[in-house]
Amino acid sequence: MTKRALITGITGQDGSYLAELLLDEGYEVIGMVRRSSTVTFERIAHLQDRIATVPGDLLDQASLIDLLRTHRPTEVYNLAAQSFVQTSFSQPVLTGDVTGLGVTRLLDAIRIVDPDIRFYQASSSEMFGKVVEVPQSEDTPFYPRSPYGVAKQYGHWITVNYRESYDLHASSGILFNHESPRRGLEFVTRKISNTVAKIKLGTASELRLGNLEAERDWGFAGDYVRAMYLMLQQDAPDDYVVATGETHSVRRFCEVAFGHVGLDYEQYVVIDEAFYRPAEVDLLIGTPAKAEKVLGWTPTVAFEDLVTMMVDADIDLLSGRLGPIS
Ligand code: NAP
Ligand code: GDD
User: Fold this and answer.
1) Closest protein CA for atom 4 of ligand 2
2) Which residues surround ligand 1 with Cβ inside 6 Å?
3) Would you state the pLDDT for residue 1?
4) How high is the pLDDT of residue 2?
5) Would you place residue 322 in the very low, low, confident or very high pLDDT band (cuts 50, 70, 90)?
6) How far is the CA of 84 from the centre of ligand 1 (A)?
7) Distance CA 90, CA 78 (A)
8) pLDDT per residue as tens digits for the range 278-295
9) Nearest CA to ligand 2 atom 32
10) Nearest ligand atom owner, CA of 277
11) Sign of CA pseudo-dihedral 287, 293, 296, 300
């Protein structure tokens, strides 16, 4: 039987890595893309002749039903979202509609068109928010601290609900922060690596950041998409935390990134209130014990290697040594 996967959010960081992995596994890959007046295919340009891109939007139920009917995927990976926490405070309704209700639209389309489709929901450690225990596992209660976290919690529970109500093979991956040279420039890790590269190359002189004390469990995106794939290969659907089990502060990320190019972060980082959030998630650290045991998944890239990989890639990119995707 042809293995055919539909990826929503294929133009994003994770979508590009997942598409590569599924192509390597012999899948036919279909990527849902929303209408835009500019081309957003930078991360998947190198895959264009191996994947099909089809129009659709998580805000539009009919487009989802039509897409499933036409392309008949066997697996659906729902990676599309308004995924930037800071923006969710200024656009809470849009975030709820896309990141929360969008999951229901897709699950309902699956229920209507083909309930045998296996489904992956991109849930988030942001749901743990003001954490009630350390480290966080599949059993840790949620306490989201942003409209994004609240929307993701809805998306998580509607996935569980469709699994229990309609017997869908629907799994929720509670993924902790994962980064790469393909990370969006607005997220703190890429903002740091990109600005460090600019400072090193002489085109920037400072890095403006918010809360340096926030701690995150940062892993490599290429590792995390493998966990998504493994979840859909299990006989039974379930929920899994995917994390490294290590946490580091934004300050430490700066120290390693600047240190890698022989600079002292304290000379360049400027604190800017504009990057503080109305409510903060101070500490995230997950335990990947269940993913390790059941899926056989382990992270392969250590924190320092992730930071230096991102800085090196941005130096190569900005100095014209490499194309945008590496
Ligand atoms: P990303 O780079 O921001 O990509 C988001 C994707 O969603 C883009 O392809 C975007 O398309 C698409 N999208 C946005 N609104 C849409 C809509 N209304 N209809 C259809 N597509 C839409 O995010 P990512 O880092 O790859 O993350 C992938 C998923 O995992 C997201 O759901 C995110 O919330 C979740 N997650 C990420 C992390 C992490 O650390 N990266 C951790 C936990 C969970 P355009 O290119 O057109 O904007
Ligand atoms: N973006 C950003 N920009 N964050 C900053 C800055 C800044 O200038 N200065 C400090 N930070 C802090 C934020 O306050 C936050 O505590 C931390 O850096 C990480 O911020 P982001 O990189 O924007 O990621 P996030 O943790 O809020 O959200 C990411 O991870 C979630 C999983 O926990 C996103 O990828 C979400 O989509 C994902 O679900």
Assistant:
1) 188
2) 8-9, 11-15, 34, 36, 40, 57-59, 79-83, 98, 122, 124, 175, 177-178, 184
3) 73
4) 82
5) low
6) 8
7) 24
8) 999 999 999 999 999 999
9) 177
10) 2
11) positive
